[in-house]
Amino acid sequence: MKIQELDWGDTPWGAISLRRRWDRITERDVHEVKLGDDFLMSSQFTTGERELARIGLAAVAGTSLTVLVGGLGLGYTAVAALDDDRVTELTVIEALQIVISWHDRDLIPDTQGLSSDPRVRLVCDDFFDVVRAGRADRTYDAVLLDIDHAPDWLLRDDHGDLYTAPGFARVAAMLADDGAFALWSDEPPEPEVVRRMAEAFEQADAQVVSFPNPLTGGESANTVYLAVRPRR
Length: 232
Prior knowledge:
Layout: E1 3-11, E2 14-23, E3 28-35, E4 38-42, H1 47-58, E5 65-70, H2 76-82, E6 87-94, H3 97-104, E7 120-124, H4 127-132, E8 140-145, H5 165-172, E9 175-185, H6 191-200, E10 201-213, E11 218-230
Parallel strand pairs: 5-6, 5-8, 6-7, 8-9
Antiparallel strand pairs: 1-2, 2-3, 3-4, 9-11, 10-11
């Protein structure tokens, strides 16, 4: 298996690399991101990232939608959000400038053109600090979040305060009155997460997103938590 490193750099979170390899099972190029020894994401499986956008935006009525995505990664959630013709403004907050540079240079074939789309603004910032400090410069119709592996499987310990009832309330404050918050997780639904969301929103639930896994011959699954209509 030949692996080509497309980019590498030191970051405040550790060394990060964008790699491409040929997968003999699916017979295609796979792009993946590695942070230290941790595999963050892969183009092998993108159903969950795409469904995060679809589920979140399906819960929002109206037109001329403004959307905030927390975490850029390989760009699948952002591109899926742009597939909704109602989206007129999409802001993506990404903590690592090198990740933004991959899209500025169109290094990921599936999401080429994302950076140059006139509806898109890529911002290098800490999403969690933006929420914590109330630094959002506007309200949004939808907030879509895919940064940590799961609410209890964090990339950084200082992310943990978002996944509490007060943290979810701070996200709710960033949303329009009929807005939606969708959260990706790589673990099965956790009722306690839904309960905390329900303290900040009028409705909250979790949806299992299943998809074929050609590597195992079976199915794999992610979870998308969805909360709608912030409590004021």
